[in-house]
Design brief:
Elements: H1 2-14, H2 17-35, H3 41-48, H4 57-82, H5 91-102, H6 106-140, H7 144-161, H8 166-180, E1 183-184, E2 190-191, H9 205-224, H10 242-264, H11 271-284, H12 297-319, H13 326-337, H14 346-349, H15 351-381, H16 387-406, H17 409-427, H18 433-455, H19 467-499
Antiparallel strand pairs: 1-2
């Protein structure tokens, strides 16, 4: 009941003219960046971090939430009309969505994606309201060893699951940890400053995020994509017929069931649930002959899973302070930029801010439906922007944003170096998320590890607390040893079953 009262209080804060304006700005920008190939919510939030420092925290996070949800919406437009996913989570949507568009059913594909995202986002946000407070109560009971173990699990998860290989994942994490420890540590010793006073306070997370995401991505895409804009399939007013509604509503619900829990798991993301949703719909459909040729279920389910996972990512970020995807990691950096520490005490110290943010998700979801259905043809026109202008603008705003953090020219050199690092990581297939997680969680893991060792007098057993840490370390061992388990245990058992 208290949660319901807090949510109503959050709606009272959101439903003011100024906050509604920021919600509208957020969802509009989010949809636009979701539509444009290669520009995702993480890059956009990173670009806007310096701009929002003069704003009230509630207004900034209302806008960020709109960008987060809007990016999930907008990616489907590119996938359906151009067969070029704006986000990796929209790859599955392109399989059936683009086939529907080529068959003259672009309007129906866009409609089921928009309505499915609204349904999934609304249900997932309700689950966020229900699930997060119990998670907070659980997190309060954890000690320093448990938090240290949780952060190790986050490190292992994002490195072992993402990218083309575990080696590349761990290499990316190592780069992030190295960047994160630059500066003066808690004992007063300088680390990796090379005698430069500008590095004594460390590298600002905003500069890292803007450099790796915005500059690195802009350089990479500008170097590889065609200079001309894509050929867009014409689209009319999105709508659904009676048969389309009948075939879509169950995939929407099943996609939500896949997306929310995977979003809340470290390194779960939206890619896995969208793929699982597609496979499920392919098995359950009454029209198997349409799959691969433009089945509406293949658009409805994955898009619902995509949007539901966005709400799921906010559960560990708000309750424990653990980001499970790149956008959540950058939003975590935004919290820290305001001097706010996400975690179990956030709901006590910043209760009004948290419930305003959650209420804004409901409002933003409704605004997105209103924007996407009538304005889909207008969003499609964004795809005709010449790419040289687009990426030159991104580099300009990235430079201005990084300079605005400390007003030091040195940050521009750092921005260029980090941008080249981001470009190199994309060139050699290193995932970006482990680096960002390493930069943000590295210093916090060090702090919790120090506390645990201080409590035990420097003994290593101090890193192992209660049953929670034991369970986490067991999970880490399974994740790390899974390739060996699969090779020497699972595969022989499977071969015996086949030959029996």
């Amino acid at each position: 009941m208290d949660n319901f009262a807090n949510l109503l209080d959050g709606f009272a804060h959101v439903l003011t003219p100024m906050n509604l304006l920021f919600a509208l700005i957020g969802v509009t920008i989010g949809t636009a960046v979701g539509v444009l190939p290669g520009i995702g919510p993480a890059m956009t939030v990173a670009l806007l971090l310096p701009v929002t420092y003069g704003m009230e925290p509630a207004q900034a996070f209302i806008m960020f939430a709109g960008i987060f949800y809007g990016g999930m919406y907008g990616g489907s437009t590119t996938s359906i009309l151009l067969n070029t996913p704006g986000e990796s989570s929209s790859v599955v949507t392109a399989i059936e969505g683009n086939k529907m568009a080529k068959a003259g059913r672009a309007a129906q594909a866009l409609a089921t994606a928009a309505i499915g995202s609204f349904v999934a986002g609304t249900i997932a946000t309700v689950l966020l309201v229900v699930v997060t407070p119990p998670v907070v109560q659980f997190a309060i009971s954890l000690g320093a060893p448990d938090y240290f173990a949780l952060m190790l699990l986050a490190f292992v998860s994002v490195t072992a699951v993402l990218g083309a290989s575990r080696v590349r994942g761990f290499a990316s994490l190592l780069l992030g940890l190295v960047i994160g420890v630059i500066g003066i540590d808690q004992s007063g010793q300088q680390r990796l400053t090379f005698g430069l006073p500008q590095l004594a306070d460390g590298i600002d997370v905003v500069v890292v995020a803007v450099g790796i995401f915005a500059v690195g991505e802009a350089l990479w895409i500008a170097a590889h994509l065609r200079r001309k804009s894509g050929e867009v399939i014409p689209v009319g007013q999105p709508w659904l017929g009676k048969q389309d509604w009948k075939r879509s509503w169950k995939p929407w619900l099943r996609g939500t069931a896949f997306g929310f829990p995977f979003g809340a798991v470290p390194a779960g993301g939206a890619e896995i649930p969208t793929f699982l949703s597609y496979v499920t719909e392919k098995k359950l459909t009454k029209h198997p002959e349409e799959f691969g040729r433009g089945a509406i279920e293949g658009v409805a389910g994955p898009e619902a899973a995509n949007n539901a996972s966005a709400a799921g990512t906010l559960v560990p970020m708000l309750a424990i302070g653990l980001p499970t995807n790149a956008t959540a990691a950058v939003m975590l950096a935004a919290f820290e930029g305001y001097g706010i520490q996400p975690g179990p005490l956030l709901f006590t110290r910043e209760s009004s801010l948290v419930w305003t943010l959650i209420a804004s998700l409901f409002v933003g979801n409704l605004l997105l439906l209103v924007l996407n259905l009538p304005l889909a043809p207008a969003w499609a026109r964004l795809l005709r922007i010449p790419r040289p202008y687009l990426y030159a603008g991104i580099l300009f705003f990235a430079s201005m944003g990084a300079y605005a953090v400390n007003a030091q020219p040195f940050d521009l050199y750092l921005l260029l170096a980090l941008g080249l690092l981001g470009f190199g990581m994309r060139r050699f297939g290193l995932p970006i998320l482990p680096l960002i997680v390493g930069v943000i969680l590295g210093p916090r893991a060090e702090l919790q590890g120090r506390r645990a060792l201080q409590l035990s007098g420097g003994e290593l057993h101090g890193l192992i607390g209660g049953w929670v840490s034991w369970l986490i370390y067991a999970t880490i061992a399974v994740v790390l040893l899974w390739p060996l388990i699969g090779r020497f245990v699972v595969r022989p058992l499977r071969e015996r079953v086949v030959t029996a």
